[in-house]
């Protein structure tokens, strides 16, 4: 298998200490449900390189993030179910590709987390 055809890997975890540890978080990739995470759980799978749409919801709040996975890349997301006036979710993305790989152009800090918003950190 050449590097250009190598699959990417997607890992999503729910282990952040700020998580309120209530409700499940349902994850869908490109419209297909791939996992339901309780606090402390993680899911990982191979995915095809290219553009993807990851959706997470806790039955109250829905969050969506679009990303592009490169061949051989390990894309990591963390989901946090937080209480902040209302229950909100934050998703963070960490790239663990080759050190020379560019980071996504739009990066936000965790300071932007409020009810109903999403934050990206690296």
The rounded distance between the terminal residues' Cα atoms is 29 Å
Major sheet: order of its strands?
4-1-7-8
CATH architecture designation: Sandwich
Coarse structural class: mainly beta
Total domains, how many?
Answer: 1
Count of helical segments?
A: 0
CATH topology: Immunoglobulin-like
The string of secondary-structure elements, in order, is EEEEEEEE
Radius of gyration: 14 Å
Which CATH first-tier class would you pick?
Answer: Mainly Beta
> What's the total number of strands?
8
User: In percent, how helical is the residue content?
Assistant: under 10%
Description:
This protein has 122 residues and is mostly beta strands. The protein has a single domain (3-112), classed as Immunoglobulin-like (Sandwich), CATH 2.60.40. The protein is built from no helices and 8 strands. The protein has a 4-stranded mixed β-sheet with strand order 4-1-7-8, with no helix packed on it. Strand 7 and strand 8 (86-95) form a beta hairpin. It is elongated. It starts with 7 loop residues before the first strand and ends in a 27-residue tail after the last strand.
